[in-house]
Amino acid sequence: MSFAELGLPATFNKALAKLNYETPFPIQKEAIPLALKGHDILGIAQTGSGKTAAFALPALAKAIQFKGNLDRKIKHLVLVPTRELAIQVGEVFQEIEKELPGRTKIFTVHGGVSINPQMIGMQNVHTLIATPGRLLDLIDHKALQLSDVELLILDEADKMLNLGFKDEMNRIFELLPKHRQNLLFSATLSDDLNEITTVLLKDPKVVKIESKTQSVDLIQQSGYFVTEERKGPLLRYLIKKDNLQQVLVFTSSIFKADNVAKKLRKNGIDAESIHGKKSQSARKTNLNKFKKNELQVLVATDLLSRGIDIEFLPYVINYELPRSPKDYIHRIGRTGRATSPGQAISFVMREEIHHFKVIQKKMGTFVDLVESGELDLHGY
């Protein structure tokens, strides 16, 4: 099936061909026709499965048909949990929209930067991509109203609930009109998500894509037994031995992320860290350099386990294991995207063996661990 068969306007065919959108992924194939018909949707599919385009395309199909004056009353609202995801989703919308004949104003807002330019930029915005906190800040400053919203999209809805946005979300829901279309997309279906969908969705169409096995199969997973003091030398050994490029390293703390990146640089490896304590400009700069393969190693905290979308990212290294199996899958899901294989390497200490076994059991995949003690790490 092609995108032309999904019910999108004919004007989309040329734009999608130019952007190399050739064959829709399963979530797009199922969700786009339903969204175009005005149904509420609950979409469950893993990160990297094409969810963003699954809601961006029908939203843009509706947006380019709008004629009139908005006067700070937006029509489409897309809510996401993090700054990085807001930027990423906004880029997808902008990338598609600029190739379409009908123009519509798309605007992205998030915390970590001055609110004043965002307040000014809200004039005549049709589609707003926002994090909950900054959206409420703008509403409190009377920069926009939600009374005319026709389409609400929640991306990574489960993550927003897990991060404790419940009070903010409830306040936003109270400001929205009752009659609207709702599209909720999530990687998992949790009890919290069940609760929120009961309140938000009206006779929803459920689109659930079982892509877990396929995604994990694309990832070559391996691991090393290692002591804490040998993690740094082992990381540098693996990177230098095969001259690995575009390596995403995950740590469990901001301090550790900064420390790992600093030691990599000290040993001649181009590396930067990215986390919530970095300024927005520094985070954006480091992420863009990494995406363009101008930065060899990016060391990140779990803040970015869902916020990085890079085509053909080849390597993910778990310098420290995450707390939950779900976070592990989100981390390694940065590689092995769509039809592109990748490698995920985990450092496991002896006292973490039970925890790693739980992760493997939840994932349904066995990961072979080798002894790093046999490797000569002298000089690394």
Mean pLDDT: 86
- The tally of strands reads 14
Which fold name fills CATH's third level, the topology of the largest domain?
A: Rossmann fold
Q: Note the beta-strand portion.
A: 15-25%
Poorly predicted runs are: none
The Cα radius of gyration reads: 21 Å
Highest-level CATH class of the largest domain: Alpha Beta
Largest sheet: 7 strands, parallel
Classify the helix fraction into a percent range. Answer: 25-40%
Number of helices: 15
Order of helices and strands: HHEHEHEHEHEHHEHEHEHEHEHEEHEHE
From the coordinates shown, what is the CATH architecture of the largest domain? 3-Layer(aba) Sandwich
Task: Give the number of domains.
Answer: 2
Measure the end-to-end span.
51 Å
Strands of the biggest beta sheet: in what spatial order?
3-4-2-5-6-1-7
Structure commentary:
With 380 residues, the protein is an alpha/beta fold. The protein folds into two domains: 3-210, P-loop containing nucleotide triphosphate hydrolases (Rossmann fold, 3-Layer(aba) Sandwich), CATH 3.40.50.300; 213-374, Rossmann fold. It contains 15 helices and 14 strands. The strands form two sheets. It has a seven-stranded parallel sheet. Strands 10-11-9-12-13-8-14 form a seven-stranded parallel sheet, with helices on both faces. Helix 2 runs parallel beside helix 3 (51-63), helix 3 packs across helix 4 and helix 14 (325-332) packs across helix 15. It is globular and about 70 Å long. The chain starts with 10 loop residues before the first helix and ends in a 9-residue tail after the last strand. The mean pLDDT is 86.
